[in-house]
Specification:
187 residues; alpha+beta; Alpha-Beta Plaits; Arc Repressor Mutant, subunit A; 3 domains; four-stranded antiparallel β-sheet; 9 helices; 10% strand; globular
């Protein structure tokens, strides 16, 4: 079995897209998860090139460098952290990433910044605000409920961070809806 690492996989739809591509290319795999594919046997150079090209056409990228792979694992950990925020126990982001990847946070933070050109915290804020936008558009929770679900200390904190990053208040964003929303994989 061999693991391949894929850049820009951020949601369940991405997993389905990659599984469809693997089926189309007749690449036998055992598992596809965010940022990773487990294939049954090593790919030939030709099949690897076909897979790489197919992934590029879908907005993904096959990763070969160890540092880039680790950066994608950091992104995956941020997404897992966001998904687990609603749980009862809240661990801080740096502790969570450290426990997920078994590296010192300072090393991971410096690596991420040098490759991505922004800090892990900046990336996290952008991802969290995309979740806020999604929840606002779904219109199932109040702003207070969204703030609580995503670990904001208050509605005021959520609103000020939202306005600082997007230039809009959450209420104004709700009025204009999806027209200002970015695709989560373009962040």
């Amino acid at each position: 079995m061999q693991k391949l690492f894929i850049k820009n996989m951020v949601c369940p739809r991405c997993i389905s897209t990659v599984e469809g591509l693997l089926d189309k290319l007749k690449v036998p795999f055992t598992k596809v998860s965010l940022g990773e594919i487990e294939i049954e046997k090593e790919l030939s150079d030709k099949k690897r090139a076909e897979l790489s090209e197919g992934l590029k056409q879908q907005g993904f990228e096959l990763i070969d460098k160890r540092m880039t792979v680790l950066t994608e694992k950091i992104k995956k950990s941020v997404m897992l952290y966001l998904d687990q925020l609603a749980g009862a126990k809240r661990m801080n982001l740096s502790a969570f990433i450290t426990s997920e990847l078994n590296y010192e946070y300072t090393y991971l933070s410096n690596l991420f910044s040098s490759i991505e050109g922004r800090t892990i915290e900046q990336y996290y804020i952008l991802q969290r605000l995309e979740k806020v936008k999604e929840l606002i558009v779904y219109d199932q929770l109040s702003l207070t409920g969204i703030a609580d679900l995503l670990g904001y200390s208050s509605v005021h904190h959520l609103s000020s961070q939202f306005k600082k990053v997007t230039g809009l208040t959450p209420g104004h964003f709700k009025k204009i809806g999806l027209s200002k929303r970015k695709s989560i994989d373009s962040l």
